Amino acid sequence: MSHVAATRAADRSADRVTGRVADRVAEREPSTAELVQRLSEQVSRLARDEMRLAAAEMRTKGKRVGAGAGLLGGAGVLAWFGLMGVLAGLVLLLATVMPAWLAAFVVAVGVFVVAGVLALVGRKQIDRGTPPVPEEAIAGVKEDIATVSERAHR
What we know:
The protein has 4 helices and no strands. It has helices at 3-28, 32-95, 100-129, 135-152.
């Protein structure tokens, strides 16, 4: 057998051994195409989940802002009634020297107290609902990006 023929025979037997080893490795580890497909599916699922989280967070914040705005509106109406009570008290004070004006001032002060409490509660609700940004969803996306980046660098 010539030297060239012996080399070719050795190459073929080495290819068979290398091929068997490659087959065993391929059985244990997924191919690049499979990994890319899995990554694509996982990224899609992750994006959908993050969008659902963002929508739920926006709904919650919207409800809080709506409740706060309603309470502030109620406080404004009551403040208006309080002002009318003060004006009625002033009118009664000027119109007569009877103590009817005192009752009007007491009622007006009570209305202002209620309006103040509603205004504080409404303001607190608005503060809890603003800014209208899905902070939890954004934090989740940042965490996911950091995790993917960390694993990609390994």
